[in-house]
Amino acid sequence: MKPVVRVHRRFPLLANFARLVALVALIAFGVASVACEPPPISELAAEQGIQRIRERHADSSWDKVVSDVNEFRSRYPYTQFASEAELLQADAYFQSSRYPEAIVSYEDFLRKSPSHGNADLAFFRIGRSYDLQSPVEIDREQANSLKAIEKYATFLERFNGSRLVPEAKERIAVLRRRVADHSAFIARFYWKKDLWQGALTRYLEILRDFPTFPDLREEASERAAACYEKLADELERDPKSDMSLYFRDQTPADLRKKAKDALAMAPTPPKSEP
Questions:
Q1: In the predicted model, what is the mean pLDDT of residues 102-111?
Q2: Angstrom distance (rounded) from CA 45 to CA 80
Q3: Residue 221 half-sphere exposure, CB side, CA atoms within 13 Å?
Q4: Neighbours of 74 (CB within 10 A)
Q5: DSSP type of residue 246
Q6: Cβ contacts of 219 within 8 Å, gap of 6 or more
Q7: Are 82 and 89 a contacting pair, CB within 8 Å?
Q8: 107: helix, coil or strand?
Q9: Distance between CA atoms of 78 and 57, rounded to whole angstroms?
C-alpha cells in the first residue's frame, strides 16, 4: 500500500484524474439505468399499456401485473381493455397463491362482465381458491371445503358446457369425502368421551348429508343407534340428567324406536352370487 500512496503524493493530478473518471463512469451507469427503465403505464397509450401487462403476465411477473393493472385502471377506467386487465390481475393473484385477493378480483370481474368469454374460468377459479385454502387434515375446520363445494356446484349449474366441468365434479367428490371424514372425526371424539348427544348429532349428520360413503354410513348407523340406546338408558335412570337434555320431551321407548330406525339406515350388503 505504501508505494501506491507515494505515487499519489508524487502525481496528485493523476489521482484526481482517476477520481474524475470513476465519477463519470458512475454517472453514466446511473443514466443508462434510468434510460433502461420503461415508462410508467400512465405515460403509455391504452393499447401499449395492456400489451405490457400481457407480456408481464406471460413472464409470470405477478407482482408487476398487479401493480400495472392498478395503474392502468386509474389511467384508463373506461377503456375496452378494462375487463381483460381485471382478469389478468385476478389471475396474477391466483397464480401467486394470494387466494383471498383472487376471490375478490374474480367476483368483481364477474359482476362487471358476466357474459365474458372467460366467465366460466373466473367462476371456477373462485371455487378453486376456496379449495386451495382448505386443509387436507380432517381434524381441522373445513369451512373452506364447504364454500368450495358450494361454488363448484353453482359453477356446474351455470356453465354445464365448460371444459372445466370434469375437474369441478372431481373436486366436489374429493371435498365431500374430506368434510364427511371431518364429521366422523368429531363424532368419534365425542364417542370416546361418552358424550352421546354430541356423537349422535354428528353421526346423524353423516347419515343425512353423506349417504354415498358406505363405510361411514355403516359406522354412523350403528353408533347413532347405540347413542340413542345410551340416552334412553340415561333418561330412565335420571329424567333430569343433562346428558338427555334434548330428549326430555320423549320417552325411553321413543329413543329406542329411533335406534332401530338408525340401524335401518345402514347400507345394504351386496347380494352374493348364487
A1: 98
A2: 12
A3: 16
A4: 10
A5: G
A6: 184, 203
A7: no
A8: helix
A9: 21
Whole-model pTM? 0.81
**Do the beta carbons of residue 203 and residue 226 sit within 8 Å?**
no
Q: Count CB atoms within 10 A of the CB of residue 69.
A: 26
Dist. CA 117–CA 161, nearest whole Å: 13
Identify the burial level of 10 via C-beta atoms within 10 angstroms of its C-beta, where 0-12 means exposed, 13-18 middle and 19 or more buried. exposed
Catalogue the E-assigned strands of 43-175. none
Q: Is the dihedral of CA 120, 150, 218, 136 positive or negative?
A: positive
CA–CA separation, 66 and 177 (whole Å): 36
Average pLDDT over the chain, rounded to whole?
Answer: 88
Handedness of CA 198, 201, 206, 211 (dihedral sign): positive
CA atoms within 13 A of residue 117's CA, in its CB half-sphere? 1
pLDDT tens for 150-205 read 999 999 999 999 999 999 999 999 999 999 999 999 999 999 999 999 999 999 99
Contact 84, 55 (CB under 8 A): no
Cα-Cα-Cα-Cα dihedral sign, residues 62, 66, 71, 76: positive
What pLDDT, on a 0 to 100 scale, did the predictor assign at position 125? 98
Neighbours of 146 (CB within 10 A): 17
The pLDDT tens digits of the residues spanning 219-229 come to 999 999 999 99
Residues of the chain with CATH 1.25.40.10: 37-116
In CATH, what number does 37-116 get? 1.25.40.10
Residues 6+ apart with CB under 8 A from 13: none
